[in-house]
Predict the 3D structure of the following.
Amino acid sequence: MSGKSRLALGLSLIFFMALAGLFFATKVWMPFMWGLLGPGVLGLFLGLYLSRHSVIEFFTMKSTKQGLNMGALIVIVITLLTLVNYLGAKYYKVFDLSGNGMNTLSDQTKALLSGLDSEMMLRFFYKNGADKVEDNKKQFRDLVKKYQDQSSKVQFEFVEMNEQAKLTQDYGASRGSGEAFLVYKENKNRIENYTEQDLTNAIIKVTRGEKKNIYFIEGHGERNTEIDKDESGMFGLKQLLEKNSYHVGQLSLAAQGGVPADAHAVMIIGPKQNFQPTEVKMLESYLQRGGAILLALENRNTAGLNGLLSRLGLELESFYVFNVYNTPMGQVVNAQSPTVAVNYSSTHAATKVFTANQMTVFNQPNAFKLLPLSETVKTEVLVKTPKSSVALKELDSTDYFGEPRVFNLAVEVKGKLSPDDKEFTVIAFSDADFMSNLLLYQNLNRDLALNSVAALVKESDLISISPKEPQATRLILSPPETSQFIKFVVLGLFLPTPLVFMMVSFFLWYRRRHA
């Protein structure tokens, strides 16, 4: 390579280095930079031209060709690895091997995320050095990752409160250990706990354009909704409805003179005194307008609603339903035990997510008998007991009558009372205790109650999500199997493997030593 070509290439390198330094310093392309780029390119081509013979000779050498082949192979491998890594980051599948799917979002959460039509931002405010802040950050980040895996519209960022004081003030964040907020279309909501249930409830609140109105009927000895320590009350159910972005109120038919026009659903839970004929007419008028009622009766008491039930094709049976249990002493019935239901409608929105190995728990329920109806009214049984269930006439006796069979505990009635009416929906239960403060969180009770309300107001995606508790996966072996397993693993694998490798190594060394 001649001195002139070295000079041209050296000057070209200087121009390129100056250009790179200026560009990375300013982060902006300026017109004078063309004055560095032009001479640099010109010097590069001039240097290559002056040393063209050396360049041609270099590329025709055998060692150069071998090096280029190796370089091309390396470039291909790196390109393939980069492509695989990119595809793996963009398109991937998460497998949940936990016993109860605790690492998988529920179908209801997935439905909410699929309905997002705008970006949803999650911000986690924290202070460096605060107590447990790192644990809280990790817990929330892991939770949000599940949502981001499901929807590209879920965005997330950490906000250090001291570094971004203005944003912290706008959100009203004050907890240094961690405080999370969700923003969607200018609607903002605080996330109290870092669980799927709380985050999904927050999404429900910010994505709902309006709050549906639900009224609890009062004035007939219905269950209390205001006292949290009343085991038979509905305070817990009311709280859950409010968390699901419903507006919940009380309604006295006698005082109001009817069901308000803004009512999306009314709930009649465990009435003890009879409804007056005028009140029954008010309920019928509400149904004729296309209303929705959740009715929960108990203790063989129809509270003066026999006529309405007959028009709905229902009759409340005058007995109690219990399960039969197999014991070493034979089959027994315990009138003090709860009644378990495991059979659900596989087509109804409220119950199709339930499986036969999931239970709902009722307390001394009655049962519904289905009556013949006109073609304008349809019934669908939502919840039934297992076949090993019996009927007791009185609670102080365990002598059941008839054979064990299936009983209807929840029924949906849908249709028109008259041809010119709007379509109504009624979901009737033969027990009110399953929604009480005492039993609400037992098994699927909460889900059944909230799903039924969601179906009544035509928002089937607003379905409660049961907390997912970690479950250990155990390998249970009988003593002989355990002994054989230990012998196979320890004596058959762990001990012989190093010895085999050592013997092979010694053999190879010996052959090479004496070759």
Q: What stands out?
A: The domain at 212-456 is CATH 3.40.50.880 (Rossmann fold). The chain has a mean pLDDT of 88.
